[in-house]
Write a structure and sequence with these properties.
The complex is a heterodimer of chains A (about 290) and B (about 400). Chain A is mostly helical and about 290 residues long. Chain A contains 14 helices and 2 strands; from the N terminus they run ααββαααααααααααα. In chain B, the strands form 3 sheets. In chain B, strands 4, 5, 6, 7, 8, 9, 10, 11 and 13 form a 9-stranded mixed β-sheet that branches. The N terminus of chain B is likely disordered. The chains are: A mainly alpha (about 290), B alpha/beta (about 400). Chains A and B meet through helix 2, strand 1, strand 2 and helix 12 of A and helix 1, helix 3, strand 8, helix 8 and helix 16 of B.
Chain lengths: ~290, ~400
């Protein structure tokens, strides 16, 4: 009778159309262009020409291996730290927050109403050479008298951890909050210690949050360049800094495009291995 | 069930559709070579509006009315309103913004833009043919251009560009943390300053100063002088003497005390106004750079030229530069390229006119040098430099 009834097969496509078109126009097409660009040779002065220049990939990997490795390393450490810091917090809010839950969540999110750049700049002040943190660490002899935090890898990792913390904490909170408290009670009734109940019931049930949180943190962190730019020194630059400078300052578009693809590939490989390790069902929560 | 898609089917079909749709887009989007620019306007009729892109804090400003007095006066005099936009933060990213339309032969809807001569982009604009020729018949005041600026190597006859303002690159230090830092060797090699100094990430600025300290001529870079200077900086990086390479973001840490000294620009230090921070041209010489006005392809040449003529009037330039405290006008406080501006500046604001950072004396100017334009475009140098500053 009506249009949708007669063309039931079309409905899903129609529903998908806006999203698909959006992704086409703003993701797939630019990505295709980037791929094309990454295989060009030449320079800005004489122009670029498409020559299947696979060498761009090799050169990028060869010249910037240190930055690639550093990016994955920093992003990995920051993701782990974010997990370790936010799990107890999310756990506490979900199970002990009571009627303050929303307010407590707001506390986690509130700093993020301030722009990314300003938050990172704030860390410059927090970690300043004559600031409270450095002075305290110096008096505890954790840092030598000439020691500093700014312009070191510690500062960069700390900055990344802080900046991506809510991407970890919120998915964790959601998955912990959904856990039926009776399951934990049941575990304890069956003579599981608190410790066992946590590791055998609570933690496995929160895995979708852990997986979502680690991916949401790790992926953007690996491509970040703001933290390394503002809090790091030359020795702490990540691959994002190199890509940024290649695109904007050196106008070496092919090399920058190739590096973007290598970074994407590296992240995909990581995500794939990770998914194999914990299972994709964890991400969608269908394992429960 | 037969008519319904499973989630998996949906994803698969979506992905297949994506692959098909992308191909034409991909082919259409690719056009590597540049075409000729848009047509120019050569009539001798003034436009209603002059579109002017400039850097921030680079125009005289009335602090009460928040207007730019010289632009208001220009409108009164000529009837041309200036749409003045401060949208240039650094050469690289501004060039990144405008190169797309310019390479496709489209106008960027600007009549004047301002780029720095010790970065590669100014030269690139001229080389690519993306700048209009000035209408010199409309700029008789060009005779007031200071002698040292008349024949730069990127535009030997000033056919395309005119200086807006100049500035110097030297060394600033915080006297609460260090003895005066007056030479490059002190900055890069004094162990007391280890991890407490920064160097500019702008290749032209940094290399000029290091080459001068090495006794080489920064205006004629050779592979040898390049390598010597490069290795000297690299050594300071490896020794961890250099904490960071910066743009003008060295200013806050210098004021806070995270930095004892920094390679820096004169105007910034004048603006910080901190009595513990001193700026000097290094013993062996500093860098001189100039921001240049140019008319991008498609801009209104006549109107832009008439405006350039206006700012090259020493009386106008004097007020723009020095401001006027009696009328609550802040000046530009950089180095004006217009002869005779100082005489007028003295009338408006003697303290600025006598500030050696703004109106440098002949002795100071003799110590500052301009970097070789050919080296700025040397791909090997650029890559080497970029790899150094990005670790």
């Amino acid at each position: 009778m009506n249009l949708f009834h007669r063309h039931r097969g079309l409905t899903p496509y129609l529903l998908l159309a806006p999203g698909t078109l959006f992704l086409m126009a703003f993701f797939v097409v630019p990505l295709g262009f980037l791929a094309y660009q990454s295989l060009e040779s030449g320079n800005f002065d004489v122009g670029f020409a498409f020559t299947w220049a696979w060498g761009n990939y090799w050169t990028a990997l060869h010249d910037y291996r240190a930055q690639f490795v550093r990016s994955l390393e920093y992003a990995g450490i920051a993701t782990l730290l974010a997990l370790v810091f936010s799990y107890p917090v999310a756990y506490w809010i979900a199970f002990r927050g009571g009627r303050w839950k929303n307010l407590l969540l707001l506390f986690i999110v509130a700093p993020f109403f301030v722009t990314y750049l300003i938050r990172t700049l704030a860390w410059e002040t927090i970690l300043a050479d004559h600031g409270f943190v450095v002075n305290t660490l110096q008096s505890l002899h954790v840092l030598g008298s000439g020691g500093r935090l700014l312009a070191t890898s510690t500062a960069v990792v700390a900055g990344i951890t802080y900046n991506f913390l809510p991407f970890m904490a919120l998915p964790l909170y959601v998955s912990l909050e959904q856990i039926d408290g009776r399951m934990i009670e049941a575990a304890e009734d069956l003579y599981a210690s608190k410790w066992d109940a946590f590791w055998r019931v609570t933690f496995p049930l929160s895995l979708p949050g852990v997986v979502a949180g680690t991916l949401l943190t790790f992926i953007p962190a690996a491509g970040d360049f703001i933290n390394a730019q503002l809090l790091g020194s030359t020795q702490n630059h990540m691959i994002g800094n190199v890509i940024q400078s290649k695109f904007l300052e050196q106008t070496e578009y092919p090399s920058a495009a190739a590096m973007s693809f290598i970074l994407m590939a590296a992240i995909l490989v990581f995500v794939f291995l990770y998914a194999r390790l914990v299972g994709t069902e964890q991400l969608t929560g269908t394992a429960v | 069930m037969t008519n319904q898609l499973t989630r998996r089917q949906l994803l698969e079909r979506g992905a297949a559709g994506g692959a098909v749709l992308t191909l034409p887009g991909l082919l259409a989007a690719c056009g590597g070579t540049s075409k000729a620019g848009a047509g120019s306007t050569t009539s001798h009729q003034l436009a209603k509006t002059l579109n002017f892109s400039n850097w921030t804090l680079y125009m005289d400003t009335n602090n009460k009315t928040h207007t730019n007095p010289s632009l208001v006066a220009f409108k009164k005099q000529t009837g041309v309103g200036v749409s003045y936009v401060e949208d240039i933060n650094d050469n690289a990213s501004f060039f990144g913004k405008i190169q797309g339309p310019l390479s496709r032969g489209q106008s960027i809807h600007r009549d004047i833009i301002v780029l720095t001569d010790n970065d590669r982009y100014l030269g690139l604009m001229l080389k690519k043919g993306w700048a209009e020729k000035l209408d010199k018949s409309a700029i008789p005041n060009m005779k007031n251009l200071v002698a040292v600026q008349r024949h730069p190597n990127f535009d030997p006859n000033r056919d395309y560009t005119l200086p807006w303002q100049s500035g110097m690159t030297g060394i600033a230090y915080n006297d609460t943390l260090t003895d005066p830092v007056l030479s490059l060797s002190d900055l890069l090699e004094n162990p007391k300053l280890k991890g407490k100094i920064t160097v500019l990430n702008s290749m032209g600025d940094a290399m000029t100063i290091v080459m001068l300290a090495n006794g080489d001529d920064p205006a004629k870079v050779t592979d040898k002088s390049w390598n010597d200077a490069f290795n000297r900086i690299k050594k300071a990086v490896d020794n961890k003497q250099i904490r960071q390479f910066t743009g003008n973001d060295y200013a806050p840490p210098l004021a806070k005390g995270d930095l004892a000294a920094a390679m820096s620009w004169s105007g910034d230090i004048a603006q910080i106004g901190n009595k513990h921070i001193h700026w000097n041209v290094p013993k062996d010489g500093g860098a001189l750079w100039t921001d240049n006005m140019l008319i991008p392809k498609g801009g209104n040449v006549y109107t832009a030229s008439v405006y350039m003529n206006y700012v090259y009037d020493p009386k106008v330039q004097g007020l723009m530069e020095a401001g006027d405290p009696k009328r609550n006008i802040t000046g530009i406080y950089y180095i004006p390229p217009v002869m005779g501006a100082k005489a007028w500046a003295l009338k408006y604001n003697p303290s600025v006119a006598n500030n050696p950072l703004i109106f440098p004396n002949a002795e100071t100017l003799a110590k500052v040098h301009i970097f070789d334009n050919a080296a700025l475009n040397n791909q090997k140098y650029l890559t080497q430099w970029q790899n150094l500053i990005s670790g």
